[in-house]
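Let us walk through a complete example step by step. Step one is to write down the protein sequence. Step two is to encode the small molecule, zinc ion, as a SMILES string so that its atoms and bonds are unambiguous. Step three, shown after the inputs, is the structure prediction itself.
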Amino acid sequence: MILEKATLPVPQFDQITLEELKQKIESCIAEGQKFLNELTETPESAQEQLAILEHVDTLENNMSEAWGILSHLNAVKNNAETRDVYQALLPGLSEYYTQLGQHTALYQTYQHIHDAPIFNELPAAQQSAIKLALRDFKLSGVALEGEAKKRFAEISARLSQLSSDFSNHVLDATQAYFRPLNEDELAGLSANNIELLKQYGKQHELDQPVATLDFPSYLAIMTHAENRPLREELYKAYVTRASDQSGQTEFDNTALIEEILSLRLEMAKLLGFNNYAKLSLASKMAPSVEAVDEFLRDLAEHARVPAEKEVSELKAIAAEDGISDLQPWDSSYYSEKLKMQQFNLSQEALKPYFPAPKILQGLFSIVNRLYGIQVIERDAPVWHPDAHYFELEDQGQVIGGFYLDLYARQGKRGGAWMSGFRSRMQTSDGLQKPICYMVGNFTPPVGSRPALLSHDEVITLFHEFGHGLHHMLTEVDNIAVAGTHGVAWDAVELPSQFMEFWAWDQESLDVLSEHIDTQESLPAELLKALLDARFFQSGMQTLRQLEFALFDLSIHRANPALNAAQVQDTLNEIREKYAVLPTTDYNRFQNSFSHIFAGGYAAGYYSYKWAEVLASDAFDRFEEEGIFNTETGKQFRQKILAVGGKDTALDAFINFRGREPKIDALLRHQGWTNGSKNA
Ligand SMILES: [Zn+2]
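Step three: the predicted structure of the complex.
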């Protein structure tokens, strides 16, 4: 298929060299520093003051594009060269942002405008941007002086280094492990999975199947391999990654965890908070640490009874196999068997109905129905043959672009994410359109056939696409509050989790599914089984998420900071209260918990559950009004997706829903309360 060329100015990924990127970032830093050094006092006139703010936005726009490209390559095409360039630039970048965040004259310029009569005449988005900037100046230590100011800068630089090291250790530890498999160890695996493992074998130059810790490989073994010692071996390798319990102690993150926690607390104290969780919450929607803690524990009580029932069912089916001591490496395996028994549903049977190209086509037609937008693939240079570029059109006008890079491979960090590297913004050259990346670690295509996705992967794709729409459907022109910028972190997962509901809808699934060979859509009995199994183990899954969230909150509430043994004790205590399955002594889950040690979720992992309340409640309105109701879709687009950080998360929600959020819909969507509105 010949594609038309991209209409937006896209980066030349086929030509960009690391050296050029490095120079570009260095010149952004130098230009920014020059500007800050020359700004010694707030200018007199409001016009001059506003010009300064505009210049700050331009600097940020240039930096976020250059840095966005480098950090993207560092995440999806990681090698010694990208890593070196990235590492070399980190200290300078951190220093620049610290200088920016603590710049007194710049801060006063924002404050002047905020306090002047002209403020009320500014567009709403700009008013919000100014208010958020003032808050962020305070949280960056603008009020600090002398030694304290210097120390704050040192901590910021060190933390950015530690977070990068943490993430590299996880990637290296994941990639270092591989385990060749004999014929008799393949029992239970589907032909498709065996082909996948053979493909991994080829990557390791072996003519036999190989198990790796890449998620598709790990999941295939844990879910299907009959060989129990093999599952145990792989489980152990996975949960000891980057820890003292693994064979490769050079990737051990234990000391990093201690240092990160200690520096975060020190930073919080410099700003006048008595723990890091309070600092984290200062910019979030949730009112207080206590409120979050109560929210999580309350939700855990709702999940407990269903979870206990689910575990007893799991134990019962394992017992039929003669297993009386259900272990962590048994749970996925017997869950799959249980699902088969209860619903006659297996992930493997579904996969042929979910070829990736068809899923994408279906997803695009769903967002077209909901928001009236069209997605068109266009020709643009990419960093890897797996990556593709698309543009979003609204009534014939291109309004944004995105890249999809879906499959797991060597050199790519785990997980799935959306990252906006260019924001909507009014520039001197006109309106700049937003562009983002959406990245997954899905099961890659095997041989020449398109990738066959599991339903979980379909859900993940919808999730990331929800984030992408938030970035691209923004109608705000101010970079500080466009798209996901300026949106409280604990509300950012609203559009993403909201979008997941369409991966669970009967009508959507008809559009999404098409058998790879027969082209038939999902047969009625499989569709029914999938929908019936929707709440399968939702209690256990919720408790697991809550365990992570409570652990994150607890270790960031501690003062004094915890050492590694205390971190482990905290995790053990939470597990004792909330886990329904046993864990092993060697489990070092925390050592690869990149969300909180290398991502933006520190004392913020609860955000997933917090925003799920919002997403569920927002979807509840669609259930009332019709899930493809174009008017409701338009409202959601206008009141939630378009506004970015212009409105507070609560205001935006109320504008859409007509009232404050309620938890009822979430409980119903877990299958814990009756009254399904739209079966
Ligand atoms: Zn997300």
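Step four is interpretation. Residues 163 and 598 are 4 Å apart (CA to CA).
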